[in-house]
Amino acid sequence: MMKVMINGPLNDFRTKRCSFFKVFYSICTFKYLMAKVMFTDNELLMMNDEQLMPAKYQIIKKVQNYFEELYQFYRPSYEEVFQSIPTCKITKGENLNNQPYVVFDFPQIKKNMNCCHLRFIYWWGHGVYQYLYISNLTHIEQTLAFIVNECKHLDILTNASVWEYLNPSLKAINQLSLSEIKGIYEKNKLLRLDYISQFQSLNHHNLSDFFNKLYQIQKINYGINKTI
Q1: Ordered per-residue pLDDT tens for the chain, 228 residues
Q2: From start to end of the chain, where are the E strands?
Q3: Which is it for strands 116-123 and 170-172: parallel, antiparallel or unpaired?
Q4: Cβ distance 100 to 161 under 8 Å?
Q5: pTM to 2 decimals?
Q6: N or C: which end of the chain has fewer CB within 10 A?
Q7: What is the number of alpha carbons within 13 Å of residue 108 lying toward its C-beta?
Q8: In degrees to the nearest 10, what's the CA dihedral of 31, 36, 42, 47?
Q9: Distance CA 102, CA 198 (A)
Q10: How far apart are CA 173 and CA 181, in angstroms?
Q11: Rounded distance, CA 193 to CA 19, Å?
């Protein structure tokens, strides 16, 4: 009987002490976590800005619509050269080096690429990256000669990371010889021609230049005689 009377208060004390340390530990942990995720004044402004995310959504939507209009404008001219109605693919994402992006592929890039494809990437805060992918050539010499003569203002990717968009290895085409470009093609089994611009500087002439080069290279490799 005496043992019960002593242990009762002791157990109660131990329980309260444990509860106190648990609460104290939780408070310390919470303060530590808050210190780690402390928001800057600029972040707090953006977090409380009700117009920021709707504006971003509208911009991304407009870029998607812009690329869709490009596809509808140029598709009829390519139905013959591609032997069918070429499809495009428009995709978007949130994390290309921590920035949103929209990708436009024409024709849609698949595992076994057919001769050449266009890829435009609207990259938030960076501009528009325009790419011409060239592979599976049936007339290599004629295609490379066309690139040397008609694509002098573009850059060419020199390494094998053809899907890498951050700090790629680029050289101006006008600084390379025909044999050097051929060496890049034979090494990578694919060429990527690049051009970067700001979105506000895009115009019909700028974009039609890439579409025309796509057409001309397809024509060289498949013998289609038609102009756009």
Answers
A1: 444 444 555 455 455 555 655 655 565 665 555 566 788 888 888 889 899 899 999 999 999 999 999 899 888 877 767 767 778 999 999 998 889 999 999 888 776 666 788 999 999 988 899 999 998 888 899 999 999 999 989 999 988 777 777 767 889 999 999 999 999 999 888 899 998 887 777 766 677 888 888 888 888 887 655 444
A2: 89-93, 101-106, 116-123, 127-134, 155-157, 170-172, 191-197
A3: unpaired
A4: no
A5: 0.76
A6: N
A7: 11
A8: -70
A9: 14
A10: 8
A11: 66
Angle in degrees, CA 100, 102, 107, rounded to 5: 155
82: Cβ contacts below 8 Å, ≥ 6 apart = 107, 114, 218
Contact 109, 89 (CB under 8 A): yes
Residue with tokens 């805060």: 125
CA distance 109 to 60: 22
Cα 9 to Cα 30: distance, rounded to the nearest angstrom: 32
Dmax over Cα atoms in the chain, in whole Å? Answer: 109
Distance CA 206, CA 219 (A): 21
